[in-house]
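Morning. Coffee machine broken again, so started the prediction first thing and wrote up yesterday's gels while waiting. Chain of 294 residues, entered below exactly as on the submission form.
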Amino acid sequence: MPTLGERILNVLPAMNTHSGFSGSGRDAAYTRSYRVMRLVVGFLGVALPLVFIIGEAFFLRGGVHVRGSISAYYHTSMQDIFVGGLCVIGFLLATYMAGELRTWDFWASLIAGLSVLGVVFFPTSRSGLPASAPACGSVPEPPGCSAVEQALGEHQTAVIHGACAIVFILFLAVMSFLFATSEVLSKQDRLTARSRAEPRVFRNPVLFWIHSLCALVILAAGAWAFAGAGIWELTPVYIGEVAAVWAFGVSWLIAGVAKTAPARVRSAVVTPPGPALPADAALPVAPGALAERR
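Came back before lunch.
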């Protein structure tokens, strides 16, 4: 009769569903997880600007207020949503493509992820204060200051915040551009298509132009934030930030729905000729081959 320890050991393997798929099924499961990450990032990018306004107005009874920038919501009743939402985006971006460290996608998303975390932890300066109000860093500590602002000073923290925001927007455009470039066929694939009398340049031209347009919108929105005009009560900074984040969100939503990893082009491995084996010789078997067959 098996002991209690043996019974537990017999039950534990049955609870392991992490590798419940095998072969191509496992690859498809991980691809679905990977695409869900993109959908989450894209959804947050589109939803957060609206959540800030609606949440403050209807759930926290703060009234309908469109702030001077998205970053200004740090100093409002929506601070927790602001910090939580941007942290989720930041950590997802920083770990995106972590398995392929030698790709432009990994480094672009890593820089964007770290930059948006900098936006969160180095907040912008408080708005709507009278000119005589004490700045963060003074003693006694003014209300509404974060620990970082109190340690570095409000102006210095805002400068770091602005630099992180600029880098973040630039690399959002880079990532959308990389999504577009992944739709361009390799030289070998273009030659193959020509040989079949089906000349083409893109895997999916619609996706190429959508991602390219999103990248251009992000860059234009960033420029608008600095040199554009305000509309109604909306400041140029707010318009530029929202347009950039929405274009980024649309690009990632589409990538989550339609984009999978393109096939890698590998050079053929040339095996040097060797002595011929006798007809009755046993072929070598890889150590894990038997295990795979079971």
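The radius of gyration is 26 Å. Going to sketch it on the whiteboard this afternoon.
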